[in-house]
Amino acid sequence: MGGFSAEREVSLSSGRECANALRQAGYEVVEIDAGRDLALRLAELRPDVCFNALHGRFGEDGRVQGLLEWMGIPYTHSGLLASALAMDKTRAKQIYREAGLPIVESVVVARDAARTAHPLTPPYVVKPNDEGSSVGVYIVQEGANGPAQLSDEMPDQVMVETYVPGRELTTTVMGDRALAVTEIVTDGWYDYAAKYTAGGSRHVVPADIPAEIAAACLDYALRAHRALGCRGVSRTDFRWDEPRGLAGLFLLETNTQPGMTPTSLVPEQAAVLGMGFADLCRWMVEDALCTA
Questions:
Q1: What's the pLDDT at 223?
Q2: How many Cβ atoms are within 10 Å of 90's Cβ, its own excluded?
Q3: Catalytic amino acids?
Q4: Coil, strand or helix at 138
Q5: What is the pTM of this model?
Q6: Which CATH architecture best describes the domain 86-103+165-286?
Q7: Which end of the chain has less Cβ packing within 10 Å, N or C?
């Protein structure tokens, strides 16, 4: 848990919640704030399983997965390749396209170029190509006077994609099963604060949407999970432009390390199907794998 990505605080929260749940489930748990000495700590502890509650770079982009494979330690969530592919939004979109999944138009441009001219016709969204938790997301509305004024903290290369109006939907996949569809209701964009601040958003699960849209979300999420080669738990996010019906449903991205905080979506969907938080964490531990 923890680490040193932009999502450190979220990871610490996820880690604390999961550690407490696993203790309640009867496991012996040691919490590690992942630093540069992570390999040494793991070598000293020699754990049976690593519950990976890291988010963002290093924790869910294939790097810590590679370390755990090298050390022969079974770990939760997706493996090295799936983690790296899902974190790279451009590569993931290529895989979605090949799998016949609906995605929006997008381009990758230099940060400075996105500051000086519109990369796409507004409205569009600018975000890092390899971050999560809505870190560094800018929306340029139709009729905007100029392009997004990106901060210097944005990476050198950014993804720009067509903005889809409408409703925010998300679906969890657990193993070989898509669980449910949640609608995320906010006053504005589902940004970092809305995700992790109490009261920042309202989750409606199961979502009050037509059966056709719910079935499509479940189908698309499972297909995305399989196309990327994910395992364990993943969560796929959608935007739905309601007046367009099924043609207005678009897959945005798949998160291979979904948040496990008190406001997170995965535990809510599991609970709707009768699985408590401790049982969910237990399932993830027992599902842990090391291909090496």
A1: 98
A2: 14
A3: 7, 133, 196, 235, 237, 253, 255, 259
A4: strand
A5: 0.91
A6: 2-Layer Sandwich (3.30)
A7: C
